[in-house]
Amino acid sequence: MANFMEFFVGTVKLVFVGSKRYYAWMAFLIVLAAIGLAAWSQQLSDGLIVTGMRDPVSWGIYIGNFTFLVGVAAAAVLLVIPAYIYKWGPIKEIVLLGELLAVSAICMCLMFVTFDLGHPERFWHLIPGLGIFNFPVSMLSWDVVVLNMYLALNLCVPVYILWKAYHNEHPNYKILWPFIIFSVPAAVSIHTVTAFLYSAFPARAFWNASILAPRFIASAFCSGPSFIIIAFQIIRSTTKIKIKDEAIFKLGEIIAYAMGINLFLLISEVFKEYYSHTVHLAPMEYLFQGLHGHNGLVPLIWTAIALNVSAFIIMIVPKLRKNFKFLNLACVMMFIGVWIEKGPGLIIPGFTPTPLGEVWEYSPTTTEVLISMGIWAIGLIIFTLLLKVAIPIETGEFRKPGLENK
Amino acid sequence: MSKDKKTVTTVNPRTASRRKFMKGLAGTAIGATLAGKAMASAGSKKSGFLTINSLEEYLQKNYREMTKEEKAQVLARMEKEYSERYGKDVKVKDTEPIDGVKFTYALDLNRCIGCRRCVYACVDENNQSRENPQVQYIKVLQFENGTMDFEESNRYYNPEQVPEEGKYYMPVQCQHCEKAPCVKACPIKATWTEDDGIVVVDYNWCIGCRYCMAACPYEGRSFNWGDPHLPAEEMNPNTHYLGNRPRMRGVVEKCTFCIQRSREGRYPACVEICPVGARKFGDMNDPTSEVRYIFEHKRVFRIKEDLLTEPKFFYFFG
User: Fold this and answer.
1) Of A187, A397, B119, B204, which has the fewest beta carbons less than 10 angstroms from its beta carbon?
2) pLDDT by residue (tens digit) across B70-117?
3) Domain locations in chain A?
4) A292 CB within 8 Å of a chain B CB
5) Which residues of A touch B209 (CB under 8 A)?
6) Superfamily (CATH H level) for A9-395
7) Is the peptide bond before B133 cis (omega within 30 degrees of 0)?
């Protein structure tokens, strides 16, 4: 216990002491988080009626953000595969940072889902034993299982590695490797289950497609690593962690292939609906062209396509990919492009038109946007704090007092 | 009580726009606040996260897991609470299904004139929120003769008189599917199919995730986005736990074949009010019932039958 207190005191010092940039960054995030929480208290007080959602479009940007972030969480850990194959050594660092990103992303996912519930205080109804858990019939129950399992996994592995490092010991790889290997199918599973949630029901023709799960994985591989490339550059310029250029460029190459696959799958979907020309075309028509005078999503989706295609070109051309200015631009473009595609570009057409043919246009309210921004801020706070403790442990700067640094 | 054909006060998609919607939202928010204040003494109560009525209510089990004694306690508590809130002698029953009964609905599209009396009778009978949100279980779709493409339908028709020339009307509500996708979807089994075929919701168990609403191919379900506004003088005090008892915000609700009526041998409100006799309801297992006769002698069909949800709601051209 005394050991842990000592550790805790050490982390408090790490968290509260930093550069001017660190303070500015944290202050910015805390302000956004506070605004978001204030908006949430309004939602708790008045109910979900403060959002733009209504019966015709009963899920909105909360679930849109959730879907996007599950992809980021999955991709963060999928880095293990290329890190291992391409021998990016030290793989440990990359796996660690990826898993900490996954933890932050999953926390954001859980917040988005909780804030979307009509009765978040009734969450205990989901706990098997206390409540009733409709597993395995309900796809939502699968999501609850895999997300929590994934969160636990991504907390346990880094905590174990870091606790050992703090004590100047190496982790026991015999125990560790199975968990790291298991995290790969676990990562695939969380995003596949989320995709199955959507593709399960024929009531929503836009989602009821076998292509949904592969598209989710492909676009996840674009969004997650884009964030990581930027994060890696910030980390290696502000801390003692060394990350090779080759690792970053290889990530960029992988992203390029993933976006290529994503664009190919998009073309496949578009061909099928437009050529077959059944009633199921309507949601896609609403998305790309507008339907019956409603075209709120049209500028958004075409922006996303432009961003994704441009980013794809930059990433696939080695000369451009290896130029950090272009690389970072492409990462930002891709992150935003995939967010649009998987967030509003996925959720809203699922409900438009409604099963009985109504076209009702959803747009988020200010409260909804502020809450969403607040949750993003909290997620980034979590990620920053995790790194603020993990990196000094990894570089040897933060050790149990009294131990020589190995 | 006779009702004139009313207009439905929702947005007409043909003229709506995002700006109008935002304006409307602001106006609605102001209106809601004022209306809320006005209705404060008339039965509208903040029912959300910060206002859990009692620890008992919070810890309440799913209806199907309660013992007889627990149910009796819950019903008594609710009767007391609702009676106080609405100033009426409110009864909350938990009438069991009648043995061997399978409720079925049949709607004669040749007779329906699109008057929407059923919509409003349902609202009155089932204690639905009147505004913010306005909940209506029945949606009446107007089609041009010659098509049944839902995308060509219009639910916001508002002529001087119905029926209009060259059009026909199809009311749609929860279809009480044998293979209900909503029942599959619910992560906590807050919605299920009873033995007499009625698909019900335990409002105190629902966490408001709205996955069931995403799963339903018939727009059968509505959500209480805000605290329901139910004027005390319009409240129907004859309620059923799984049916028309007053709901709270943040939960899903839907047609229950007027469970508080049908389990006592009465017709649902929509069947009773229909002025042209388009609506037929009864027990499919009873060889002498109207619905059985229609099923055996009329050309019945179900909507979106290819989804294999097996609705208990049949349509026919009588």
Assistant:
1) A397
2) 999 999 999 999 999 999 999 999 999 999 999 999 999 999 999 999
3) 9-395
4) yes
5) 113, 116-118, 140
6) Formate dehydrogenase/DMSO reductase domain (1.20.1630.10)
7) yes
